[in-house]
């Protein structure tokens, strides 16, 4: 086996999923280049906050995934994973936690989808497998940004993007149903 085929095997994901019509689809995700699109960090009260900080701030993490077709007829897509983190510490007794920093990272990647399958199956593959591939780099970049600002950090747990996809799809369905009822 050539080194090219070894790399392709390592950098691809296969999915076989039933489409809404009951037909089977066989799609394969090819992983391309990953890159940092944007990084931002805002710190409240620096450097004073570092003098009074005790312990590791709690990291509240929000996640979003965006898919942009670059050449869908060729199966080429850009997927962007956004991680937004807020570091908080306990406020004075009886008050809300205090936000001491807000950090965000947008991490992108180029992905190819090969094989036959419905558009829904392609979207599902891209929404589940591509962010999983991007998460390690995005998380590393976010934590490095926070650490370089002088804050201690814990490592957020990996995210199950299959569950994330299912929850997001269910939320969209609920919103659409609520809109239908409101008419």
Automatic annotation (TrEMBL):
Gene Ontology molecular function terms on file: unfolded protein binding
InterPro entries named among the record's database cross-references: SecB, SecB-like_sf
Stretches for region Disordered: 1-27
Entries under Gene3D superfamilies matching the protein: SecB-like
Source species taxonomy: Bacteria, Pseudomonadati, Pseudomonadota, Alphaproteobacteria, Acetobacterales
Protein name: Preprotein translocase subunit SecB
Domain of life: Bacteria
Organism the protein comes from: Oecophyllibacter saccharovorans
Family: Belongs to the SecB family.
Gene Ontology BP, a term: protein tetramerization
Record field: compositional bias (Basic and acidic residues): 1-13
Keyword line: Chaperone, Protein transport, Translocation, Transport
Pfam families membership: SecB (PF02556)
